[in-house]
Design brief:
The chain is mainly beta. It contains no helices and 18 strands. The protein is elongated and about 75 Å long.
């Protein structure tokens, strides 16, 4: 585009369609510093990379001060909700990447869950969830939702003496693999390799706009707002 002497904005070179090639403006190079790979949640507000879903980050469900150095989320509605979800997420930016967090969460019943979610929208997501049921007790399992079809895969029992667990989502182009660790160094695959293409904007003609998001979330369908504490969140290209 260019300005005319009369002060009108018009397409450079005239005509009704923009040119496929145009000279670049003579501006100095201004590279932006790379974002840190790891956020230890030591600041008093969320980093600029993070977004919440539809509702603002307020003290009713999110806190960085109740337990300094941790992101505390209080459980609200399910991942299928269009209203009040306790979800903090950032965008997937690379074909090959790893996202990791450390979670402390002690669910009381099957209505409560927390963990690491790879999210497109309410109908399409993959979720590595720490939860509770009468058969397994406290456990971790992969939950999938494909075009609204919800499925819970086989769970892995978590040691009651270990309050912390480490969760990872590893992307390799169209492949997503969740991993679990009790010490943050020795990782074990949990669940099958998943089709990461399901999280793309044009999956099944969806024409979405948000892109693939990776987030931390908590649910409490019993209404008690059970909280989970996240020690850090890291994201790195590999």
């Amino acid at each position: 585009m260019e300005w005319t002497e009369e002060g009108w904005l018009k397409i450079a070179g005239g005509g009704k369609l923009p040119a496929l090639e145009a000279p670049a403006p003579a501006l100095p190079v201004h590279p932006w510093p790379a974002s840190p790979e790891k956020d230890d949640f030591d600041a008093n507000k969320l980093g600029i990379e993070f977004q919440t879903l539809r509702i603002p980050a307020d003290a009713g469900w999110l806190s960085l001060s109740e337990r300094p150095g941790y992101l505390r989320l209080r459980g609200q509605e399910s991942l299928a909700s269009w209203n009040r979800q306790s979800l903090v997420a950032r965008r997937l930016r690379h074909f090959r990447a790893e996202a990791e967090t450390c979670l402390e969460f002690e669910p009381d019943n099957f209505n409560q869950g927390a963990g690491l979610v790879c999210y497109s929208d309410e109908s399409d997501y993959f979720y590595l969830r720490v939860g509770y049921d009468e058969e397994l007790g406290r456990h971790a399992r992969v939950v999938t939702c494909k075009s609204g079809a919800y499925e819970e895969l086989e769970g892995v029992v978590l040691n009651e003496s270990e309050s912390r667990c480490y969760l990872m989502a590893a992307f390799d182009h169209d492949r997503l693999q969740f991993r679990l660790s009790t010490d943050g160094s020795a990782w074990t695959d949990i669940g099958p390799a998943l089709d990461a293409g399901q999280l793309s904007d044009d999956y099944e003609g969806k024409l979405g706009f948000a892109g693939t998001m990776i987030g931390l979330c908590v649910q409490d369908l019993s209404g008690t707002k059970k909280h989970a504490d996240f020690d850090y969140f890291s994201y790195r290209s590999v």
